[in-house]
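Continuing the batch. This is chain 6 of the set; chains 1 through 5 are on the previous pages. Same settings as before, nothing changed between runs. Recording input and output for traceability.
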Amino acid sequence: MSAGWLSGLIDYGVIGLLVALSILVVAVSLERYFLYRKLSIGSFEDIKSLELVLTRKLSVIASVGSNAPYLGLLGTVLGIMLTFYNMGKDAAMDTGRIMTGLALALKATAVGLVVALVAVVLYNALLRKVRVLMLEWEIANGRKTL
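Output for chain 6:
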């Protein structure tokens, strides 16, 4: 039985999914940013309809930010399983190959953390812009906030 499929799953499955999610986060963030720049808040009759437009798709960014580390951890667990499998199969495995296998297993966690950090930073920046736009609407419409 070969464990090559597991190595492919880690490299192309987990890390590929994390890269795709990071592209999705950047694309949604750019779409939201450009929408916020051209949006006319005066065209909204009430603040709830404004909030619906402003917060649409932000949950995608938040979900990626909160779940990317877990996907990376899954890749690391699979990589460690692969290293242990190879250790058991090759009884005369040297320490260098073991350490290399474990180090490469951690790359999935590193990628997951990077994706999560980018997503959380973008989410927080967009959420701040949402709050500012809503406050501007309230000021323009004579609403008092606490």
